[in-house]
Design brief:
8-stranded mixed β-sheet; 578 residues; 35% helix; Glucose Oxidase, domain 1; alpha/beta; Rossmann fold; 3 domains
């Protein structure tokens, strides 16, 4: 039996349903219009289930059924569940970029919870941007909340070979461009790479973020690793529904869980997983909502000391299904014990240390021992220099080592469309040492900072066997991507960052060990170019895109809206019930 620190009369929903006035009469009568009565809500917390299901999001296709499992758990524990649909943010279909709408979903989640009689929330997400968006919104709202991850899909298969979503798409696309596989082979890969509902089963952004949120303490232990199609996933959903009811009575809010130490646990976990570079942007934004200072320097500091232990694509060999069978995230965390803040509180009311105490690794090839890591360090690196004075990021563990210290001539593309139109030109002036540069792809320039950062290798080089080159942009890249890609250059070119000044033929030098990225052009010449630079025309003159452009922060600040950050102003008041 949970220890209650709240009474029924202290719940938010009591103000809607418990009072003896005309307004509450209206609330109760409309609930009865839907077929409910006093037995459904009286004396019970109302649990909002924020469901990002839609028919165009394959990652969340099972959420209709999982929402019912959550409701079952809520009813079992004496709560009243109500499902509230929210924007789905499918990574594949949402254009120009799902990142353009992450803050939109965060706002929607926050306002859904604030404006309705909700005492606690179950947040259903998993596809890349849904996880940070839901947590950002719930954090700003401040009521008890727990995250339900969608879970990874089953491993892919082609001719008996295991396929990983995203990573093998890029791999075999290059093989097709090189003429090494046929159109029929490509068609078969298309049919075999995604075999069930659930998000990417590589260590892409989806699994990186759900794992980070588990380490943060905002899911039940082990929840992030369970494959979406596994029966354990439905049981976890029901358990999540049971747990949120107790969290309401305990008044276990995100503020009690999401401490600076908890965010450091999340960053350490991302490093040990060899996780997506997108996690840097999302965790910085999320931490700012929680009132915690988290910077690029924190990621770089922890990356230098945390080994990559998860041998999962794209940095490794295996997939999330293998990771789950090897013990999942609790097993990985058990091997990081001395690096973690094990006394951090989690949503099940126990500490992180208590949650991983019984965890065991069942396959040392998938979750490596500390003495045999995938990489000693380098899950991510933060680089600075005159080309990125506010920082940029790279994933050294997923790059050809020869590009960790390199200098070469730039080949500049002003837009993705220009790059796409010319990258396969057989006469393109490019060698394996060329540095491909894409600009106008950042938060403002994309717009929405699309995942364009893994620029394709020029076709003529692909046919020669080239599979990696140094690529630099103010874009992001998919967590399933790989290669020597320098990303998130800040400030972005669209607002006059140094990337806007690069010209084809300029020498660009990188030294990852020294964390340096340098445009080898004299400052006097850069000053002349800066004086000639003209800002591009805005993408939007009205609507959400206009609002986005007015308030979006740069990549090193998490790309949140300035007006949504905790420090921007006074807390939003509770809605008045007249």
């Amino acid at each position: 039996m949970t220890e209650r620190v709240k009474t029924y009369e202290q719940l938010r929903s009591y103000r809607w349903f418990g009072a003896k006035d005309l307004r509450s009469f209206g609330h109760r009568s409309r609930a009865k219009q839907m077929g409910y009565d006093e037995h459904d809500w009286a004396g019970k917390p109302i649990i909002g289930i924020i469901n990002t299901w839609s028919e165009i999001n394959p990652c969340h296709l099972h959420f209709k059924l999982r929402a019912e499992a959550v409701k079952r758990g809520v009813w079992q524990t004496g709560g009243f569940p109500l499902e509230l649909p929210a924007m789905t943010l499918d990574e594949t279909y949402t254009k120009p970029s799902s990142m353009l709408y992450r803050n939109f979903l965060a706002m929607e989640c926050e306002e859904l919870l604030r404006s309705h009689p909700i005492d606690g929330a179950v947040l259903m997400g998993g596809c890349d941007k849904t996880t940070p968006a839901l947590l950002m919104g719930a954090t700003s709202m401040g009521i008890p909340a727990i995250f339900l991850p969608a879970g990874p899909m089953l491993r892919g298969n082609w001719h008996g070979e295991t396929l990983g979503s995203g990573s093998d798409t890029w791999k075999y696309w290059d093989e097709k461009r090189a003429g090494n596989i046929s159109e029929a082979d490509w068609h078969d890969i298309e049919a075999g790479i995604a075999r069930s509902h659930g998000h990417c089963m590589t260590m892409g952004t989806a699994s990186t973020m759900t794992s980070a949120v588990e380490a943060l303490g905002m899911t039940l232990p082990g929840a992030a690793s369970i494959p979406a199609a596994d029966a354990n996933h439905e049981r976890m959903a029901c358990h999540t529904g049971r747990r949120i009811v107790d969290m309401v009575w305990e008044d276990l809010t995100p503020a009690r869980v999401q401490t600076p130490q908890a965010f450091e646990n999340a960053v350490i976990t991302v490093m040990a997983l060899g996780g997506s570079t997108n996690a840097i942007i999302h965790l910085i934004a999320h931490a700012r909502r929680a009132g915690c200072a988290l910077t690029l320097d924190d990621f770089d500091r922890l990356s230098r000391r945390i080994p990559v232990l998860a041998d999962i694509r794209p940095s490794g060999r295996y997939l999330m299904e293998d990771f789950y069978y090897a013990g999942g995230l609790p097993a990985l965390l058990s091997r990081l014990g001395d690096e973690l803040h094990l006394d951090a509180l989690t949503v099940n009311g126990k500490t992180l240390g208590e949650n991983v105490a019984r965890a065991r690794v069942h396959n040392d090839a998938v979750i490596r021992p500390r003495g045999n890591p995938v990489a000693e360090e380098g899950a991510t690196a933060v680089l600075k220099g005159n080309l990125a004075p506010l920082g940029c990021v790279m994933k050294p563990a997923a790059a050809d080592p020869r590009f960790l210290r390199h200098a070469g001539p730039a080949l500049v593309f002003d837009s993705y469309a220009q790059m796409k139109a010319s990258i396969d030109d057989p006469h393109l002036a490019v060698t394996p040492d060329t540095v491909l540069v894409l600009r106008n792809a950042g938060p403002q320039g994309g717009p929405g900072m699309p995942e364009w950062g893994m620029l394709p290798i020029p076709a003529k080089l692909v046919r020669e066997g080239v599979r990696d080159m140094l690529r630099i942009s103010d874009a992001r890249m998919s967590g399933t991507s790989y290669g020597a890609c320098v990303l998130h250059v800040a400030p972005e070119s669209f607002v006059g960052g140094a990337l806007a000044l690069v010209q084809t033929g300029d020498t660009i030098a990188i030294d990852v060990a020294a964390r340096a990225l340098t445009l080898e052009v004299a400052e006097e010449e850069l000053a002349r170019r800066r004086a000639r630079w003209q800002p591009p025309a805005p993408h939007y003159r009205r609507g959400y895109g206009y609002l986005f452009a007015q308030h979006i922060r740069q990549a090193h600040e998490g790309c949140d809206f300035d007006c949504l950050e905790t420090a921007f102003g006074e807390p939003v008041p509770e809605p008045a019930i007249y």
